Amino acid sequence: MAEIVINGLIEGGKASGGPPFGPALGPTGVNVTKIVGEINEKTKAFEGMKVPVKVTVDAATKAYKIEVGFPPTSALILKELGLQAGAKSKDEVAGNITLEQAKKIAESKAAVLYGNSLAEKVKQVLGTCKSMNITVEGVSAKEAIAKINKGEMKL
Questions:
Q1: Are residues 89 and 41 in the same domain?
Q2: Which of 29, 128, 141, 147 is exposed most, by the fewest CB atoms within 10 A?
Q3: Is the peptide bond before 20 cis (omega within 30 degrees of 0)?
Q4: What is the reported pTM?
């Protein structure tokens, strides 16, 4: 059973019958328009961001599977805050995120973040905020993580 695997980086919700999927899928005999539509449906939440997509087609049965990856946490933070980039120096603050925004990002990436609880996953998002010099509810991300650990900041 020969499988054909096509990988591509697609802007969320904007896959088309053109490269990388259209020309690669065409010779397999599958319905390219249907697959592109499914990719767009699965990636629409990541509009404006590049998302890794993998399509696997069984050449014999024409059955296919679409797997959508996740954009980096930093890209989700930038989109949430409407920023183009993080801080350029350690003295500059790039922006401020609320715990609710961090929670939203953690929930959207829950499948790929480590940790058993939402709080642990939110702290991972805040760790990325720390590296980007983005404050959390007006305090440093490091301080916010410590406050969550002490129960002083509630999710």
A1: no
A2: 29
A3: yes
A4: 0.71
Return the pLDDT at 22.
87
Domain boundary, last residue among 68, 85, 101: 68
Within 10 angstroms of residue 32's Cβ, the number of other Cβ atoms is 17
Q: Encoding tokens for residue 117?
A: 């609880």
Ranges of the chain with pLDDT below 70:
1
Query: Which tokens hold the place of 27?
Result: 């010779």
Q: Are 77 and 134 in contact (CB under 8 A)?
A: yes
Distance CA 109, CA 111 (A): 6
Out of 11, 37, 68, pick the residue that ends a domain: 68
Backbone angles phi, psi at 140, to 5 degrees: -60, 150
Is the domain of 103 the same as that of 120? yes
